[in-house]
Predict the structure.
Amino acid sequence: MNAEALLLSLRLAATVSILLLVLALPLAYGLAFSTWRGKFLVESVVALPLVLPPTVLGFYALVAMGPRGPLGKLWQSLFGHPLAFTFAGLVLASMLYSLPFAVQPLVASFESLDRRLLDASAVLGADRVRTFFRVILPLAWPGVLTALVLSFAHTLGEFGVVLMVGGNLPGITRTVSIDIYDRVQALDYAAAHQTALLLLLISFVVLSIVYGVNRRVWSPWPAK
Amino acid sequence: MLNVQIRKQFRSNGAQPFVLDAVASFAAGFTVLFGPSGAGKSTLLDCIAGLQQPDSGEIHLGEKVFFDAASNLSLPPQRRELAYVFQSLALFPHLSVEQNIRYGLDKLAVSEQTERTSSIAKTFRIENFLYRRPAELSGGEKQRVALARALVTSPRVLLLDEPLTGLDSALRRSILEDLRAWNDSNRIPILYVTHNREEVDAIGERVVTLVNGRVQETGAPRAVLDAPRSVELAHATGFENVLPAIVVEHRPADGVMRVSLDHAACEIEIPLGDAAPGSEVRVAIRAGDILVATEPPHFLSARNILPGTIESLETRGTIVALRVKAGASFQVHVTPGAVRALDLSPGLLVWLVIKTHSCHLVR
């Protein structure tokens, strides 16, 4: 088994899921509570990665990150090295790829909150920020956990986008799924099987956590 | 004094959009906001609290402007310094009772927060479960906590949307007493939404009735609710019999007029009102205001004695609802004891006795 690839994948998934949560929280708040009429356009953009083939997404990400792409140029001028085929480039592309997996559980949990609790908070003098941190976030935590875990698991298993944007550089962009692909190509089925089984187990555990929490099996407060 | 004069239209898929068009003033002390469900009571409170925006009009509390459509001003709910107890109470489920109460006090010093919390906890008798979560409280305890959380902020207006529904009457009375005691030392306008008649009588300083989005009447509870002047209100205030009628003749000397009920099925006398002979009106009579006799009664001051037949009996807790066909069809409430004593049963010939002043002319 390739420990280097596994560690890289875990590092990528952890970085992506945390950065994505920071990005997805305000985005989901807007989608859940805004009354703006053009909201459906943002919703469509957020859902795009669900229906696009990863190669399409990866292709455009690569074009944007390339030395002549807008993102690539900006990155080059800021940090002095190219963005494509680096870990940072992989993180950016993966965030795009996993965006709906972070945003949609958050929107769903925000929308299921009792609006009267938010009204109560406002009448009691709390501004939106305080309401968000004292009421919305604590009550929507199963959604937050779901968003974290799903974007982690989804990033862990991604293949097409990584291949397009990252290539196959050991220790930098060779993730577990690429490693499995390589082993199969080299007809090393035993090694491929080891890694694949591990990935399968991790995914199963992670999803069990999500579904378990959402069924409120370990809910810290009694059901209403 | 809280002055409200607002209009808000709601889009609807039906033919007629709902329009809230309310003009009212609320002085310090209790004002009961009464009306059938769907009359716009909660919407009115939401507009006062700033949770919904009226289309036009203005709301101000003394000099302080809450809302003024003309100058495009709307104070956010955070800055209206009012308290609002929702029908659902909306206690924060993830916070303890104490944290719920402190929630609105975060701008005060911690010592002040502690002092106010313990003082309000004493007033509403919730000291013993300050560290429990709302889910661990009974219905009455939750309602006390919701009131305490609202009142601890020293609001300048208090909005209560059916805060005591679902409680038995003893518990309701005890909470109302605590609320009244609080109000004696903090004279502010309190708007109390309910459609429970018992609560109206227990609080009863003033009643404002809202029907179909409009303020219909303002006055003392007895004056407004015992003589409802609209059909919707008659139903909402518990008038089981609202019958179509035609005015037959005025008898000014007797202070009465005769009306024929339900397409000339029978005639009764009602107090003289402002409806001309020949005009179509409605007459509202409480089921509990009708007496039942099994023999023709004599020597009574009641002017309306109608022979009829019992069609059905239905026991509902401590009352038995009779359906009696006496020309028109009347609902009559008697006690189970009366049913036994008079041996009331379907098919029995009875006489209904209705006092003139138990009959109310309704628009």
Summary: The radius of gyration of chain A is 20 Å. Residues 3-33 of chain A form the longest helix (31 residues).
